[in-house]
Amino acid sequence: MKRIVTKEDYVQSLKDLHHVVYYNGKRVEDITEHPGIRPHIDAAALTYELALRPEYEDLMTATSHLTGRKINRFTHIHQSVDDLIKKVQMLRLIGHETGSCFQRCVGFDALNATYMTSYDIDQKYKTDYFERFKKYLIHVQDSNVMLVGGMTDPKGDRSLAPTKQLDPDLFTHVVERKSDGIIIRGAKAHMTGGVNSHEILIMPTQAMREEDKDYALVCAFPLNTPGVVLIFGRQTNEERKFEEGMDAGNPFGLVGGEALIIFDNVFVPWERVFLCGEHDMAGILVERFATMHRQNYGGCKGGVSDILIGATALAAEYQGTASASHVKEKLAEMIHLAETIYAGSVACSAMGYKTPCGAYYPDPLLANTTKHNVTRHIYEIARLAHDIAGGIIATMPFQGDLESSEVGRYVKKYLAGAKGIPVEARMKILRLIENMSGGTALVESMHGAGSPQRRRSCMEGWEILNRRNAGRKRL
Amino acid sequence: MKRIVTKEDYVQSLKDLHHVVYYNGKRVEDITEHPGIRPHIDAAALTYELALRPEYEDLMTATSHLTGRKINRFTHIHQSVDDLIKKVQMLRLIGHETGSCFQRCVGFDALNATYMTSYDIDQKYKTDYFERFKKYLIHVQDSNVMLVGGMTDPKGDRSLAPTKQLDPDLFTHVVERKSDGIIIRGAKAHMTGGVNSHEILIMPTQAMREEDKDYALVCAFPLNTPGVVLIFGRQTNEERKFEEGMDAGNPFGLVGGEALIIFDNVFVPWERVFLCGEHDMAGILVERFATMHRQNYGGCKGGVSDILIGATALAAEYQGTASASHVKEKLAEMIHLAETIYAGSVACSAMGYKTPCGAYYPDPLLANTTKHNVTRHIYEIARLAHDIAGGIIATMPFQGDLESSEVGRYVKKYLAGAKGIPVEARMKILRLIENMSGGTALVESMHGAGSPQRRRSCMEGWEILNRRNAGRKRL
Amino acid sequence: MKRIVTKEDYVQSLKDLHHVVYYNGKRVEDITEHPGIRPHIDAAALTYELALRPEYEDLMTATSHLTGRKINRFTHIHQSVDDLIKKVQMLRLIGHETGSCFQRCVGFDALNATYMTSYDIDQKYKTDYFERFKKYLIHVQDSNVMLVGGMTDPKGDRSLAPTKQLDPDLFTHVVERKSDGIIIRGAKAHMTGGVNSHEILIMPTQAMREEDKDYALVCAFPLNTPGVVLIFGRQTNEERKFEEGMDAGNPFGLVGGEALIIFDNVFVPWERVFLCGEHDMAGILVERFATMHRQNYGGCKGGVSDILIGATALAAEYQGTASASHVKEKLAEMIHLAETIYAGSVACSAMGYKTPCGAYYPDPLLANTTKHNVTRHIYEIARLAHDIAGGIIATMPFQGDLESSEVGRYVKKYLAGAKGIPVEARMKILRLIENMSGGTALVESMHGAGSPQRRRSCMEGWEILNRRNAGRKRL
Amino acid sequence: MKRIVTKEDYVQSLKDLHHVVYYNGKRVEDITEHPGIRPHIDAAALTYELALRPEYEDLMTATSHLTGRKINRFTHIHQSVDDLIKKVQMLRLIGHETGSCFQRCVGFDALNATYMTSYDIDQKYKTDYFERFKKYLIHVQDSNVMLVGGMTDPKGDRSLAPTKQLDPDLFTHVVERKSDGIIIRGAKAHMTGGVNSHEILIMPTQAMREEDKDYALVCAFPLNTPGVVLIFGRQTNEERKFEEGMDAGNPFGLVGGEALIIFDNVFVPWERVFLCGEHDMAGILVERFATMHRQNYGGCKGGVSDILIGATALAAEYQGTASASHVKEKLAEMIHLAETIYAGSVACSAMGYKTPCGAYYPDPLLANTTKHNVTRHIYEIARLAHDIAGGIIATMPFQGDLESSEVGRYVKKYLAGAKGIPVEARMKILRLIENMSGGTALVESMHGAGSPQRRRSCMEGWEILNRRNAGRKRL
Questions:
Q1: Alpha helices of D258-363 — where are they, by DSSP H?
Q2: Measuring CA to CA, which residue among D357, D364, D286 is closest to residue D124?
Q3: Entry pTM
Q4: DSSP β-ladder status, B70-72 and B147-150
Q5: B421 in C contact zone (CB under 8 Å)
Q6: E strand intervals along D399-460
Q7: Residue D77 has pLDDT above 80, yes or no
Q8: What is the spatial distance between Cα C48 and Cα C44, in angstroms, rounded to a whole number?
Q9: DSSP for C406-434, written as a single string
Q10: What ipTM is given for this predicted complex?
């Protein structure tokens, strides 16, 4: 496969993919021309585009430890604490450009988690997954493809194990083992960047027991493989993307263009299978992926929050409230919250360490802490943005009103703000705030990288025990 | 005017109104047939419909202290503490029916605030506003029209007084005094129930100084008066209202169908003018309206929150998590927060008192406290709803996917939840949660009845002094 | 017994009681002369003293529904919603006088809970507890004694039921039934006003099962009954009460002078036994007592918080920061939090209702909500008090330094604040803040009237179900 | 001066100091024998003792960049990001040992701030402060003395500048310049470790203007210099330190044994003066000291919180509630909060950078964020500790009761917890929790390293502007 270098290469590669994508019940022939999808493509394209800018080379690219070639950092295996920190800085940087999700970190984390775990499986079971995976990794690094990190299964009734579900396919599993590969069935939900990625790297959704071993599965395949069907999820205000203009709020969409991806008897050759039946390793892989994904959230959401804070400061300026002491106080609080989550991402990276396979891994407890703060602080940042921006973000007329020959003059007259500020500028910044502080954007900050309860559970075990013992020493 | 009794009467009266309404830059001929507006009409219609049910008669109706006739409570002047408490109970009741804003309390509060204040102006200035207003009130009670409570001006640059704005019309004002009435110009923003009301009762947006006396103005007129133009505001996911089906989430829309209402040289006869130039009374009226409007929020939002909490409990049940201890804990917290805001509304009513004109008035400090809690707790309730409902509310396929002959079977298969729960039921409840916890709904809880800073300011004056003196006594 | 009317009567009655009280391992002969105990006596004495002031007659006294005689409200059975509201107002009033706990509400609530429940037991079991209790009630009303409300047992290992404890006495129980009465053994912990009350009304600490029926027990007896031993609990900074002067912070002490009360084979005559073995009624009584006790917390803590807020405002004034915008903002937030808890107490009272025995009962869910907010807001009020008052409340020199001939001049010189403020005044107000925002005072707001988990549990049952059903109706 | 190596050396050096210390108005001849002071000495002594343990050598010691000699890290100038991170790890480590403040970081930060700033002054003004300071630094490193970091002035009326105060000494200033040195007058308040340090390094308390240039002053001198008087501050429950036994809660006291230090015409030779009159540099020095001091709080308070969390877990275990889901949830939340503050300290260190003089400096915004979280989370951790530990921490009998021949058996009987747990162990852990979650300990977390408003102000300037500009780019 030809290496994807530029934004144009990336868009063309998606045109050439011919995968089966549905949007609102209808097949999409060319996703790059689809207004509901294109913003997400443009966001992900920045991961290619920014890597070409000299000033960002240090953050956006790395040197492959396998080939020595320069690669996009999103395909790199972390070789140092510095790599872990640069990951976080890169995410904040791109967040500043998009004000939205740029999707590519999920596959990045899937690569690192699988790299570490396939090594460990080989150590324990004398398998050769690690060698297979390194070949796959070189393919990813050289072709620069974008990967879906495929973890979350639909899960049906959450109180039941995979094999206890009414429909065995509610968790993705192997339905047939053949000499040249396996047949899998199931689906992955909430797949960030799903429709505008090239391949998917499937991982189990949770720890698995002996009886669930067919569900213990890691494998990769292109999204145009027969049997793969992608359904784009419905987002907040998504119809606005079909209009041209300001009401969409953010040209890069919101969140990650998540999709439901169905595997209807998909064949995967053995060289792309990296865990198959070693059920005791599933939980370890999940934990590692989750840790590395939680590491990200203070980076990307920190960057995205900077834009929301800045937009809110501008909105205040445009309506003449920027110098009010309570406005400054609230903006300072928003900054405080954004820095708190960023601090978490930096700290778990700085406290990262080398694992047996040589890859570096962030501190799990601190990564967990980071994401837990994100589930709270992003909501509070949005709340403060609403406070400052005013009720107008919920009641502002349509762009169509502004442009109407009949009522446009009223909109211009009555939405005027401070002297010298064009009404269009004010409306645009308010629409951006609306876009960034609304429903879908908040939900993502809650559930990305695992729901609060799963993160909380990590803390309830040995961490409590640990401190209890520290307390006992003081008696 | 014929008395509006039934829901049908109400809808017909709106058809007959022929006021000038714009939606997305286009004139709407019949708002009752417009999918973007109809849900709000249906919500407001419940204020008529429920008043006819015997079981709700006590809450939904009252006896006019002026005529002795039975009237809709939304047109009543509070005659007792019991009236104040019934108001709150009525709001929670209707909130249970709509899960959304039913709009009619704004005009209700405007009536009460004007009643009390016109009396006081007459006492001070020997004017006859109170008599005029009582006649108007009888008209409202007998015809049972729905009123817009018109307080918030566009305000342009918030750091400048009305007369200092670049455009003098950014606050609504009298531009000409004539023998038979006045000509006014300006606009009112965020007008709840704007397009589906019959008349508007305009009030000043803030305290006014001597030089702003043309902006000190209370008057009423029908919305089909020449020069009145209404522009419907754009809401979160509003295009979904145009589709038939589940994706709209709530058949009663969300928030109050707010509109920008423009007064382009509107004539108002003197018998409908209730304050004109007595600038020192403007602040008093604003404070009274605000207090009575803040009183409401634990009632209506308490009721609406009950529905959101119930929907969240169902969503948990549908996906098999209802018995998890953390889910029960979070639902209990949501209830706690909803009851906290309801307690505020009940308390300010129970501590209400009789004013010189005979009308009862809720305790301002407690009403203030209530609304301040609403600006926080509604966000936290939404956050917890997201936590329990799961990422699916941000990534769920379109209704069009569910109904598609090509991918419908996949949606049915992979969105299945607990045994026996139809996929449609699960999707419907998730769409309801999405509707109720999203952008516009949150913003409304922040800014309705005055932004946090205006509420906060009320506390900073004599309340601090008050306690300081209590503290000093202890020295 | 002679009726206790004045503060002096009350103090004398305690001298005459000759009950067995220990303080720091030593028997206290006369508690009224003991500096560690006297502040609590003075606080409780205000419940007698204020009842004699004409301006407080309406709040502090009531008319007995049994005798028609005027009684202290703390011995009254609520006869109306108005009684419930006056209770809350009375508590806030006394809180303003003491800035501390005045202890007498516990017995008040015990009387009401037992009144209602003894009636119900009789209805169910044809017993005559209600008649016995009414006689006891008349004795309490006429003599105006102060009662301990004895609910909380030591409980040993909380994961075990009463009969499963290693020591059967860790819950108070009947050890022998005799013809003229019963012998009981056990203890009650955290007994507010324990040492300066006259009698105790014992109640069970939780719902009881069949096998725990000896632990289902309500009875009353004087604290000088043989076998009763009281041990005064150690409080924050309690040694300062032994010094004369400002460092004690508050002449009325802090919290309720709690005691551990031991029953070492205490005899109780049958006429003072109001539940004995009817185990199914224990949980009902606990719930009722808890509801009525939770009702109080927005009243007393609201009043106490007013003093802390006022003291904090004064401290700011004394050091020149009162006009800073952040100080005013924080004081406003403190007021907001205090009013939020007060609103809860008023609301649960306003929504109170008549029970079968005729007594009025506050709304349990709203009472629960009130106390739950107290467990959070009192801490936040303290935190804000610390913020404004400054680090000086943690590092201020001793009163002994101020009075020292060697270093007194340095203290006077360097603790000077704003012009004209005597150093002593500043130090006094800072010591008051320290007293009111410290350890014991906070813990009381957490655990009085039941720990958060017990309150939370009340919400998790039918309240969730209730809302779930409301949600379902919207499908 | 002989190098202080062991704990014994340290104690002896304090005996030898013969400085003028007052406690409760009385001169203390030997502070090492004084029960009110000794716990703080023992805490600080650990900074000597742990440095001798091989396993902590890497964290507790460093190599002087001036002399190449091994030194205690508390006297080191940070030479790398790794040094910054080790500082934080060292603080958490010692926090685990003391569960309290060990005081020595203040002088540490004062050394680093002065090092950096004296270099900058010389660059700007061609002075020789840096050379003087390096000599002083070598003295500190070699003698291993403990320094007070003297920043906070009494400040009188906070709304007035130093020269506008009624008493010019309310800010410390130069009163006379002589050929061999200067005479200073004033005081420093809240001086952590004040009485058990050897020397003080005085810094200005805020930015200074031209007219305040006599208040722009950095200098160092021993605490036994004539004219220096130290007054020990009164702490929560400090009398308990005079008893022998468990009621004191923590053998290392609580917070830092803060003192008011008075300079009554103290002579300081020029070689110990490091800034004198260069008023424009005062604000820079304050900001640097504050940043480095804020950096600490997630380290020391993180470590201290670990002990409180552990003690709380033990208390739950001792009373049979450790396996309750809400207890585990709350312990997990406490851990989350402790890790959040620790993450801040690590992150500001990891993002630290080299300054012109060669010393490394943590990221100011992240350091600020860290301390701001401490002002909230330590209170919440205390609140949760109270929740789990129970009301008993506010009402537990005295140790004197436990040991009493008369009532000791009752205390033992009724404070029994889970099987096999000695009552003494339970009481001890409860007293430790009481000690760590009470008044003074909380206040310290609020005001150490600057009050919230001063930290907040740092964010309100260019940080808002910064983000506003980022937001504008998106238009």
A1: 282-318, 325-350
A2: D357
A3: 0.97
A4: unpaired
A5: no
A6: none
A7: yes
A8: 8
A9: TTHHHHHHHT--STT--HHHHHHHHHHHH
A10: 0.96
